[in-house]
Structure formats: structure tokens, C-alpha cells
Amino acid sequence: MVLKRFVMRGQMLLLVLLVAVALVRPVHGETIAIEQILSLCCQDGEEWGLQSRTCSSYNKSLELVPAGLHGLCLSTIEICCSKQHKIYQCTAGQIAARQGLSCSLKGDHSGSEFYTDCCEACKIGLVVGSSANKCSVEPFAFGSPWDEIYESCCNDIKKEGEIILLGGHDEQGLCDQFPTICSQVCENVEGGSYVCKCHPGFELLDDKKTCAPVSDDDNEAVEVKSCGKGFKLNRSTDKCEDVNECETGEATCNPATQVCRNTRGSFHCVDILLPDIACDAGYAPKNGQCEDVNECLEQLDACDREKEHCLNGRGNYSCLPKAVTMCQPGFAYNVSLGVCEDVDECEEDGACDEGYICVNIEGSYECIAVVKNYPNPPRKKVETCTPGFRRHNDQCVDIDECAADKNACDSNQMCTNEIGGFRCDCKIGFNLDTVTNACVDINECQVNAHECLETQRCDNTIGSYTCIRLQSCGTGYTLNAQTGNCDDDDECALGRHNCQPPFECFNTKGSFRCRQVSRYPVPITSLTTTTTTTTARPVYQPRPNAYPASRYSSYQPQLPPCGIGFERNSMGACVDIDECARRAICHRHQQCINTNGSYRCRDLLTCPVGYRGNENFTECLDIDECATGEAVCGPDQTCKNKKGGYVCVCPPGHMIGRNKRCEDIDECAMHGTKVCQQNSHCINTIGSYRCDCKEGFKNGPNEMICMDVDECKEIPGLCHQRCLNYWGSYRCGCHPGYRLSYNNRTCDDVDECEEYKSANLCVGICENTPGSYACRCPPGYKLGSDGRRCIDIDECQTENVCNGRHDICTNIGGSYRCTTIECPYGYQHDVDRRNHCERINRYCDVGDVECLRRPHSYSYNFLTIASNLLLPPVGRGLFSLTGPTSFQMIDFDLKLVSVDAAPHVRPVDIHYFRLEKQATVAQLNLLKSIEGPQDIELELSMQVFQNGELYGTNVFKLFLMISAYEY
């Protein structure tokens, strides 16, 4: 069909091309290059097709194309656009096959037949490639491009590695449908595929299905004990232990709405149901509080989406008129009225070629050929389109909801247009709430998805987070929020110093210094001469009465005095005075040590800080600063002496803070969740703290420990059917066949027949019952032992039917049929066999060939076959004949007598059957599945020869009744 369509379209294009060539005329002595025009038109068509637009709706201007070539260009555009659609659909079909999706494309799409054909060709290649067969199309062939697609998909799957792709099946995984597809472990993966894996100690072979033991250097198999899923091997005990998925993080429970419960070998998620909350109009309960309902997102508004935008508000919404500035193709904007009006293309000259009448329609126009004496039937118009499409040029084209409605998705989502609809995806930093179907902010700080340092605090923001420094920078520094570093404060520039003239401020790291503007003048020096040496020394003025004048016995008034601690000797030179030798100027527990120009006293007993010597200075004793009053403590502090010092102690629950004052310790902030359990809130108090139990918990004997409240026992009748208490709360459950209603308390019956109708719960008729369902069969069938299959009732054996003398009862699906056997002329009914007619006169004269060819008997056989019966490649046996072994030769023949098929059913022909002959046996095989309902009459004849002459003939009438029932 596709090739035929191509041939017809090629013939039309050739005709248009010939007409266009005839219209070409020289312009200014040059001939128009048709090839270039067609190339440009084809490029426009491909670009139009890349945008997934309908090829017949091309509406761009053809200013660069001569008027006589407009029709040729439009035909070229449509062909190139259609080619691009087919390439796109073919590629999409291959992708769908590799992902295990269906090859049936829903809706009306251009080139959809290529989607299906390419998808099926790829699926066949995937199946053949996964079975380790050769990727060759010989001896069959699909044709181009399907042969190339088949070989590509077949070869690709051989290179996929461990993952083996197959076509999509039912919701049931491939591993469940084909338990022996892998030799050891089979795991389903996304996209309808599966992967084969091996137990520890085994490795996957090249066929990606078979596992073989891993061998060591001595080629001996290494035996490794393996544990099943949900268990791990304890190498110390060599036993398989259960894995607590709730602690390891392997559980997939939603922490916001579910509680993880570990089970042996697995886990299960228990839903957290918050108590009912009464909210005002426009609000709905969520996470224990009332949150705004986005009426625009949930389409609960009453706005006209064609003319108005829906704007959500807190508890309400508003409808804003759309500012129409652009119109769809075929419409023009009326500024005065503010609306888009249809353009009458028929008013333009040359809208249709000669011989056609232009008819304006909304958004476009039609060219109807003028045929004399014959009415011009209008083209079939598309009255309505399915949701997600709009009518244009009598076709349904996709609506770009993202461009048409800026509020199609909320501010936390990104809008992506799709064929027949659109998709709202959450932006980065947001996650989809499965309950409200809205994008909510991800608390990166809560789920540990941030990159803050240990010295920083993570603060969540809408769509992101920020890192705040925990520790203060200290005095003299200020935190730089951009870099996170502590920058030095320039107290001199900020005016925070206390330096007074003649001192000036000099900044340092974390502080400042006051330094003098200029140092004191350098003392005046002069040269003095002594009897011992000549040296330049400064002239110092001696302190008055520093020493008595009598000590300077050799003092010479004509010489200047020596400095302090020096005196002139008899030679007039200044020499050091030994103060230790002249008098005892140190205490008795000290030793005098002379120095140049002075002396010093050294304690014979040196005590550390906080100690002092005894009266004899023989040992060091501790100083009690608290008793002596040397200690300096605050008014609310207690002084405690210690060896070598003292400490100021605050009351319990306090610590020394600023200005050496006692400040209360916030145990809740300092120790976090270590002071109270997770099921309680820590409340700080002056000097201590307390633990207040969260909702769902209460204090036990120990006021600091909170115990779970069993709401199911304390509140009778809390739930309709079942009440399940868990840590901190409870949830209501229902018996099998019921589900919780919107109030999370009462239980509603589940209509399994409607909800699971795609799963085919019953082969026959499904009837809903309270809490369950029941299967019922139509008349003529009975329910099987499994309670869901319908088994045909053989009325011929169970009921008194077909009571006629020569009636034959034949069971069919859901009923039966009575057939009266009427023997041909010259034959009579066999008293022993009701379906057998034998010849009255069995003897023939010698040489009477016509008498010998007449059948000895007619046998009538009836067989019922289901419609579209699955058959093996070699066919299925229906009927067999066995002749007598005493004759030299037996010949069998098959003839199709009659076929009576329903109007919508394809009738059979002789090629549906094949007669396999042997020496004395013949078998009738069915080669193709037969559609039903239809009745088929076949005639099998058996001729017996003896000594080269015909001895006799028997005819077997076979009536096949194909029912409409399918397996």
C-alpha cells in the first residue's frame, strides 16, 4: 500500500512538473533555474516537517517563487515535508521498539504507517538478535528501508553487553513470563527489558544468559556461598543475615508520607495518614496544615481558556483577558474589535488555478474543480477534533499548549509540548508530590543534598539552599557572606580607636595600636677625658642626693661627676660601685648580686604564681584567693579555690559568658537531638530543659521519655474496618476488596471488574460483589475450577438433544448444532453408524467402470474449530484416514466443496489445507488460522487398487464449523 501510494504521488508530481515547465518563460533573456527553485521549496518543506506540522497547512509566503510555479513549489514542499515526517516517524518507531513500547501509534499522525512498520522490523531484529541467531534477512526480505532497520537492531542487541532488549509485553515482566530465560538470576529493567546475572562465584558467558563457575589458577571451581535478595553473608559465621533496608537506605519509602518497616528479606512502606483538617474554601489539607489549591493547575476554574488566562491566588483565582496580538494562519487581527477575524483568501487574484472555484472556509479556503453537468460535492470536513487538537484546513492539528497558555504549568514547573497534549516537569530544586500532583520544593538541607561545610549551616530556600557560617569571626573581624572568610576591621578608618594626640592610630590584624607621632629628642653628647681612657660618652645629670657625698672620697671637683652606680677612683677614672660589699640592701632570704652600675636581689626560694613562701622561706604555700579577697568573680558566681589559683563557678545549667557574667545554657541548641528523643521537642528553661512529647506520644513513668499512644485502643471506633497503630500515629486499613475513602477513615468497596478490566479477571462476565468479585459465564459455558475460566458445555453429551433418527449432534462454542444425515440416491443409512451411508447395491458387472467408481460409502464427519487458532509452523492435524493393508495401492484425494463465511470474514481456499499421503495413511493438516464464523465442507476420497485396477472408492465428508470464539 505504501509503495502504491508512492507511485501515484510520483505520477502526480511528474504531471505537475510538466505543466510547470510549460509555464516557464524567459525573463530578461534568462531562463529560470527550476532546479534551484525546487531545491529551495524542498528545504522549506523539510523545515516545516521538522516542526511536526501538517504538510498541507503550509502558509509561508512564496514571494521568491514566480507566480506560475506556486503550484509546483507547494507540491514539492508537501512531498519533502511528508518525507521528513516519515523519517521522523521511522526513527521514533525504532526508539519505541528498543524501549519495549507499543508499535501502535495512537491518534492520527502523518507517516504513522512508517512508525508501525519500522517499529515492528526493529522488534523482529531484537528478538532474533537476542536468541543468538544470525542477523540475516535471507532467504526472506522485507525490502528497503526495513531490511536495514532489522539488521541494525539485530546487530545492536548483540553488542549491548549484559542488557538484552526485547519488545514490550504485558505489564508482567519478561523474567516472570519466561522463567528459564536466564540460567541463574533474571532481573527486569526499565523499558520492558531484562538482564541476566550470576550468583557469586559464577560469571556470565558470551551468550549473556549462561553462568559458569569462576575458576582459580588451578582450574578448580571456587565455591562461594550466596545469599538471596534481602540478605547478606556474614563471613564470620558463614550465615545469611537479614538486611535492614530501612537503615541502609535501600528502602524506597517516601519519608514525608510513609514509614519504613523492615521484614525478613525485604521491607514494606506504611502510609502516614494525617488527621482530618477543616479548611476554608480554596484551601485543602496537606502535611497537617491547610494549603492553597491551585485551581488553574487542577482545572477547577471557570475561565474561558480561549479568551482568558487563569491566575491563581491565595484561596481563590482570577480570570484575566488575553492580550491578542497574533492570530493563527488564515486569520487577521482586528485592532478596533480586539479579535482575530477570518481572511477571505478568495478575494485575492490567483487563489485557485483556472478550472477551479475558490470557496472560503474559516481559517483557509478550498479550490473545487468545475465539472459540467455534475454536482460538486464538498470535501468532507472535520467537524470536531479530539482534546489537544484544533481544526485547521479541515484537519486536526496539534495545539502548542505551552505557547498558547503561559499558565499551563505553575511557576515551579517547565512546560513541554507533546502531540495531543503537554507535559509539566518539575524545575531543578523541586520534586513531584504524588498526592497533589504539584511540584514542591526539595529541602536539600533535610535530605542531605547540599554542599555546605561542617562549619556552615544549611538554610533551605525555594528551589535551592544557602550556606551560613556557624562560628563567629570574633572581635576585630567581620564575616564576608560571599567568600565565607573573616575580613579584618580597620578600626583606624572606622573611627573605633581611642588614641589621643600626640599619638596616632596604627591598624593591626584584629586590633589597633596607638603610636607616638615623633619620638623624644636625642640627648646631647660631649666628649670627656679621664686618666684611663678617652671615650665619647653622654653627659648624664646625677640624681640629687643619690648617694651621700662622703662616699666619694676621691671626688675631684674639677671633673664632672660619674653616672649612677659609678665613682671616680684615685686616678680620676669612673669605676663600678660594688653595692653588695658596702651594705646589706637585700632581704635576708635574698642574695645580692652586683651588676655594672647597679645590683639586683635574687630570691633564694622561687614560688610559682598562686603560691608564696612560708615565714622561713623553706617551702611554697598555696594562696587562697577566695579567702584573701584577691579573687574577682561576678555577683552571681561562686569562688572556688584551687592549687595555684581559683575559679569562678556558675550555678548548674549556666556558663560564663560575656563580661564574665553567668548565662543560661541552651541545652537544646547545644546538644541537638541528644538530650531528648526523636519523638519529643526540647524546650529550654532557665538552668535546665524539658522534653515535650510530640503528637501521638505521651510521657511515661520517666518524664524525659515519651511513649507511643495506641490510638486504636484508646479511641474505639476510630476506623471503619481495621486500625493499625504505629510509632507516633496510626492509620486506618480496609479488608481485601475495599479501599480507604477520601476521609481516610471509612472503607469503600472496590469495583474490581471496572478497575482491573484490562487484566481480564474473568474470561466470561465479571460481576462485582462487596469486597470481591465473581465470574459468570454466558449461556452454553460453565465456570472452571479456577473460578474465572469459562469451559464450553458439550450439550451433545449432557442434554437430550438432536433426537431425530438420522440426526448428528455437533458441539460448538457455547451451543450445539443438529445435522440431519440425508443419504444420496442409491445409498442407505448404516444401522450401526449414524454418520455412515452405504451403497445399496455393492456388486458391479465385469467391465462396468462407472459402477466401480461409485463410492462404496459416504462418511459424514463434523469438527468445530475456534477462530484464529494458533498454529505451529508445520501446521496442525485435523483428520486422518487409514486404508486396508491387503491392497496393492491406495490413493487419497482432497477437494474443497463449499465455503459459507460471514460478510466481514475472509473465506478460506484450498491453500489453507494440505493432505499428507503415505502408503495406507493420509492426514489432513490445517496450515493457516481461519477467521470465524464460517462453515467449510471438504471431501476426502480414498480409492483402492488391486492388480492395477480400481477396486473401490470411499468418500469422507468433513464439515468444519469455525466459531467466532477465540482462544
Automatic annotation (TrEMBL):
<dbReference type="InterPro" id="IPR018097">
    <property type="entry name" value="EGF_Ca-bd_CS"/>
</dbReference>
<feature type="domain" description="EGF-like">
    <location>
        <begin position="664"/>
        <end position="707"/>
    </location>
</feature>
<dbReference type="InterPro" id="IPR026823">
    <property type="entry name" value="cEGF"/>
</dbReference>
<keyword id="KW-0677">Repeat</keyword>
<feature type="signal peptide">
    <location>
        <begin position="1"/>
        <end position="29"/>
    </location>
</feature>
<keyword id="KW-0245">EGF-like domain</keyword>
<keyword id="KW-0106">Calcium</keyword>
<keyword id="KW-0964">Secreted</keyword>
<dbReference type="InterPro" id="IPR001881">
    <property type="entry name" value="EGF-like_Ca-bd_dom"/>
</dbReference>
<dbReference type="InterPro" id="IPR052235">
    <property type="entry name" value="Nephronectin_domain"/>
</dbReference>
<dbReference type="Pfam" id="PF07645">
    <property type="entry name" value="EGF_CA"/>
</dbReference>
<dbReference type="InterPro" id="IPR009030">
    <property type="entry name" value="Growth_fac_rcpt_cys_sf"/>
</dbReference>
<dbReference type="InterPro" id="IPR000742">
    <property type="entry name" value="EGF"/>
</dbReference>
<keyword id="KW-0732">Signal</keyword>
<keyword id="KW-0272">Extracellular matrix</keyword>
<protein>
    <recommendedName>
        <fullName>EGF-like domain-containing protein</fullName>
    </recommendedName>
</protein>
<feature type="domain" description="EGF-like">
    <location>
        <begin position="398"/>
        <end position="436"/>
    </location>
</feature>
<dbReference type="Pfam" id="PF22914">
    <property type="entry name" value="Fibulin_C"/>
</dbReference>
<dbReference type="Pfam" id="PF12662">
    <property type="entry name" value="cEGF"/>
</dbReference>
<dbReference type="InterPro" id="IPR000152">
    <property type="entry name" value="EGF-type_Asp/Asn_hydroxyl_site"/>
</dbReference>
<feature type="domain" description="EGF-like">
    <location>
        <begin position="708"/>
        <end position="748"/>
    </location>
</feature>
<feature type="domain" description="EGF-like">
    <location>
        <begin position="749"/>
        <end position="791"/>
    </location>
</feature>
<dbReference type="InterPro" id="IPR055088">
    <property type="entry name" value="Fibulin_C"/>
</dbReference>
<comment type="similarity">
    <text>Belongs to the fibulin family.</text>
</comment>
<feature type="domain" description="EGF-like">
    <location>
        <begin position="622"/>
        <end position="663"/>
    </location>
</feature>
<keyword id="KW-1015">Disulfide bond</keyword>
<keyword id="KW-0325">Glycoprotein</keyword>
<dbReference type="InterPro" id="IPR049883">
    <property type="entry name" value="NOTCH1_EGF-like"/>
</dbReference>
<dbReference type="GO" id="GO:0005509">
    <property type="term" value="F:calcium ion binding"/>
</dbReference>
